[in-house]
Amino acid sequence: MLLRALPNKSILRHYATKLDVLGVLRERGLIAQVSEPRSLLERKLERGEKIKLYCGADPTAKSLHLGNLLPLMVLLHFYVCGHDIVTLVGGATGMVGDPSGRKTERDALLDATRLDNISRINKQFSNFFRNAVNSYKQKFPDSEVNNGSCAHVNNYDWWQNVKMLDFLANYGKHIRIQSMLVRDSISSRLEARDGLGFNEFTYQILQAYDFYHLYENEDVTVQIGGNDQWGNITAGIDLIGRIATNTKNPPFGITVPLLTTSTGEKFGKSAGNAVFIDPEINTPYDMYQFFVNTTDADVGRFMKIFTFIPLDEIEHAVSSHLQCPHLRQGQRLLAREVVNLVHGPGKGDDAEMVSDVLFGRNCSGITGDELVRVFREAGVLLECSRHSTLTEILIELAQCSKSEAKRRIKQGSIYLGPERTKVVDEVSSLDPYVIDGKVLILRFGKQKCFVLKLC
Ligand SMILES: Nc1ncnc2c1ncn2[C@@H]1O[C@H](COP(=O)(O)OP(=O)(O)OP(=O)(O)O)[C@@H](O)[C@H]1O
Ligand SMILES: N[C@@H](Cc1ccc(O)cc1)C(=O)O
């Protein structure tokens, strides 16, 4: 296995002092466990040796979600420091189902659904790394980013050729049942009433063999995953130790802490609380809203995990945020940065603009075209005929009767235009409130705001 030295120029501002990506990741709260011999990995990195890392996700949903971003952020930090990365979509493992962290067996997916999920997830992997690197470059224009290579693989590509008899004969004896039985994902399910199917029991063998395959064929030496993946990752390390032809470069596993909800549940698909990164499922604005609602206590932690904001700037941002927490400056910075990173430079700023308009911040100066673009992307642009009267528009928006609409206007709870002009009567023309002849901002009291494109 060839070890290549990292080009000096790839050492970025954040890592300049130590060549210590692992140290930075630890400080950012992105490391739960590193397998032994850890010091060997640390020394390699300190010497500037280039390594290759992989992380996998099963195609059990249409999209990756914010929980999946934690291991991907680890890959990303290594990537912008010049290391090579591989993402894996589990075309094979997705047919079997990972029991890790689950109390019950997964429902099998239809082939067509799984295949569709695979192509979507591969696209999300490549978009994520492209957007994140672009947003990194935009954020730190003076840093030279010599990112490593980024490859995307599907484990079905090698599993489809593996024959069961050959596998059992060649690898079976190297896989020890005792160590399989004691892994948390297995032992916890053996005690449960419904037990565990043979498919799920063998899952760790599949993931172990993936690591072995990538180690032998692609020079991958590190696997990253959530902490629930520790058992599967160490199964791979065991297998490599037993059968690899060249063990001069020992394999390693690095896990990230599991992002949990306030009730301690893993944030993800199974728990049904995921925020997805596919903009067709959750728009950048949805993601912005999720982060803007972060509690004060989590703002700094999430900035460390989900953004590239340097640690000293995070400290500064959090302490000035805590002086006036009601302004939610910390949450706004966090939300803007994450969305820029995941969806590409500028998308966080666009989402912030939508949020500012909807939640009543000063929005004068935004052009009609810009409003149409950002509200359309956020999926919250409404349309109405430019010949409609105010009463007709209200009937549509509030799904109310004509008399109810008129009553609302009389009550003085309707505000129009960027200047939020209160109206108390049907207006003869909406034109004075319309921005650039095409967009009307209409508010119901303080709570609701609508942006309408006039057609
Ligand atoms: N909440 C989370 N925090 C940290 N890592 C996570 C989280 N959710 C998933 N991951 C990690 O993302 C990687 C891919 O996960 P994958 O998509 O296969 O399953 P999942 O999202 O955990 O799905 P499920 O909820 O159905 O178990 C794994 O390494 C997993 O540990
Ligand atoms: N088991 C991982 C996904 C995965 C699949 C195959 C691998 O080789 C690696 C990771 C999970 O469910 O989160």
Q: Which features would summarize this protein structure in a list?
A:
Rossmann fold, 3 domains, RNA binding, 6-stranded mixed sheet, Structural Genomics Hypothetical 15.5 Kd Protein In mrcA-pckA Intergenic Region, Chain A, alpha/beta, disordered N terminus, Tyr-tRNA-ligase_bac_1, 18 helices, single chain, 5-stranded mixed sheet, Tyrosyl-Transfer RNA Synthetase, binds tyrosine, 455 residues, transit peptide, elongated, ATP-binding, EC 6.1.1.1, binds adenosine-5'-triphosphate
Summarize the structure in short.
With 455 residues, the protein is an alpha/beta fold. It is built from 18 helices and 11 strands.
Describe the structure.
Its main location: mitochondrion. One of its GO terms (molecular function) is RNA binding. It is found in: Mitochondrion. This protein folds into 3 domains: 8-256, HUPs (Rossmann fold); 284-359, Tyrosyl-Transfer RNA Synthetase (Orthogonal Bundle), CATH 1.10.240; 381-454, RNA-binding S4 domain (Structural Genomics Hypothetical 15.5 Kd Protein In mrcA-pckA Intergenic Region, Chain A). The chain has 18 helices and 11 strands. It has helices at 21-27, 38-46, 66-80, 111-139, 156-159, 164-171, 177-182, 184-191, 198-218, 230-243, 284-292, 296-306, 311-323, 329-343, 347-358, 368-377, 390-398, 402-411, and strands at residues 33-34, 52-57, 84-89, 150-154, 222-226, 252-256, 381-384, 414-416, 421-423, 439-444, 448-454. A 6-stranded mixed beta sheet has the order 1-6-5-2-3-4, sandwiched between helices. The protein has a 5-stranded mixed beta sheet with strand order 7-11-10-8-9. Strand 3, helix 4 (111-139) and strand 4 (150-154) form a beta-alpha-beta unit. Helix 14 (329-343) packs across helix 15. 40% of the residues are buried. Residues 1-13 have low confidence and may be disordered. Bound molecules: adenosine-5'-triphosphate and tyrosine (TYR). Adenosine-5'-triphosphate is lined by residues 57-58, 60, 67-68, 70-71, 101, 225-226, 228-229, 256, 258-259, 266-270.
